[in-house]
Amino acid sequence: MEKTDVLVIGGSAAGIIAAVTGKSSYPDKKFLLIRKEKQVLVPCGIPYIFGSLESSEKNLIPDGAVTGAGVDLRIGEVVSIDSKKKICKTAGGEEIGFEKLILALGSTPTVPKWLKGAELENVFTIPKDKEYLDKVLVNLKDRKKVVVIGGGFIGVEISDELNKAGKEVALVEILPHILELVFDEEIAVHAEEIIKSRGVKVESGSGIKELLGDKKVNGVLLNDGKKLEADAVILSMGYRTNTALAKKAGIKTNEMGFIETDKYMRTDNNDIFAVGDCASKKDFITGKASGVMLASTACAEARIAGMNLYKLSSVQTFSGTIAVFSTAFGETGFASAGLIEKQAVKEGFDIITATFEGIDKHPGTLPGTHKQIVKLIAAKDSGVILGGEVVCGPSTGELVNIIGFAIQNRMTVNSVLTTQIGTHPLLTAPPTAYPIIKAAEMLVKKLK
């Protein structure tokens, strides 16, 4: 029987970072990462293989990210775990003994059982599976009319990319607007207007009833009776966590089906850790169980697990997901962090909000200047930042990350207001009107 000190099952973002961080933290330990996929895709880059990248080959995580860090890599499938004997068995009959085990099992696209017609030809999902997606790409070359079901990030991004590739695209969302689970209405409407202006037909407010066709799909029937023609349908209706292997081994899961973990990412067995989409999440602000699945969250969890494998740190812990989301259509980015306004109100917080609109360069006459919108949500009793939303150009990602830092460090509007920043005409908003600070300034006035 082969033996290793640390065995990592799963080779996407969470598995890679857990193995690499673990090896860096415990260089004397032997690490082995085993994964089913021959090649691993950049998870967040998957929608862009349908347009901008034109191929999955341009969206690969190189194996050197693992092997270059001193971690052994193997292609295979683990089919059972004996947590007491600390042995894993593979589909090929191999047995691997371990001291510590990290589960990075990921997630799989959800196909509702009630959806009639999901088995028809030319109906696809979007798994993190290169071989499957390569077949989808080949198939779509001959399709003109594509209907995408689901107006979350993946559905919206794929719709935009297919439209860019010359397809006639209809995007179906049951909520009144796309992306409305992560943005307040005014931001979601803005995003919807932009994607419509780029050529995507949006059918919001009426979900899907069934897929139409004999052997091949030829249309989509909506709940309101409307029919959409379709040469192909892409289902982007959410993801379910991959926990079958863990459940089979008797590892505890929570009420949402995720592997139960503590703040060190340990399961109910202290020698077995879980990270990424398969691991339980708690909201950073409310402490409630969360179903958020983000590569950024997965990597944060993976670093925590890697650092705490053999020796726990009282400061290197995971305090809950802040859920930092972002996307972009053309030159306009949309992002959110923490609680948006409607979530904060629903949870029962007494809040204040402020929205500042400015520009991302100074002076505004510089080429490529883009409007910036920053909305901050804070607790009225303390001024603590609870969340924020951003609409901007290329700086969207960094602005929302600043908001994420503020939330994680429980900064108040006063501490944001007095924060020192660096600015440059070509890179940032002017120092006189930096959007996060100006929004904080507006909130301070409301507090007074």
Form type: globular
Structural class: alpha/beta
| CATH architectural grouping of the largest domain | 3-Layer(bba) Sandwich
| Tally of alpha and pi helices | 11
What is the fourth-level CATH superfamily of the largest domain?
A: FAD/NAD(P)-binding domain
CATH level 1 class label of the largest domain: Alpha Beta
Describe the structure.
Helix 1 packs parallel to helix 7. Helices cover 24% and strands 27% of the residues. The relative contact order is 0.11. The longest helix has 13 residues, at 13-25. The protein folds into three domains: 2-36 and 44-108 and 240-307, 3-Layer(bba) Sandwich (FAD/NAD(P)-binding domain); 123-237, FAD/NAD(P)-binding domain; 333-447, 2-Layer Sandwich (Enolase-like, domain 1). Helix 1 links the parallel strand 2 (6-9) and strand 3 (31-35). It has eleven helices and 28 strands. The chain is of the alpha/beta class and 448 residues long. The mean pLDDT is 97. The strands form eight sheets. It has a five-stranded parallel sheet with strand order 6-3-2-10-21, with helices on one face.
Please describe the topology of this protein.
Layout: E1 2-3, E2 6-9, H1 13-25, E3 31-35, E4 40-41, E5 60-61, H2 64-67, E6 72-75, E7 78-82, E8 87-90, E9 95-97, E10 100-103, E11 107-109, E12 123-124, H3 130-140, E13 145-149, H4 153-164, E14 168-173, H5 185-197, E15 201-204, E16 208-213, E17 217-222, E18 227-229, E19 232-235, E20 239-241, H6 244-248, E21 272-274, E22 281-282, E23 289-290, H7 295-307, E24 325-329, E25 332-338, H8 341-347, E26 351-359, E27 371-379, E28 385-392, H9 396-408, H10 413-417, H11 435-447
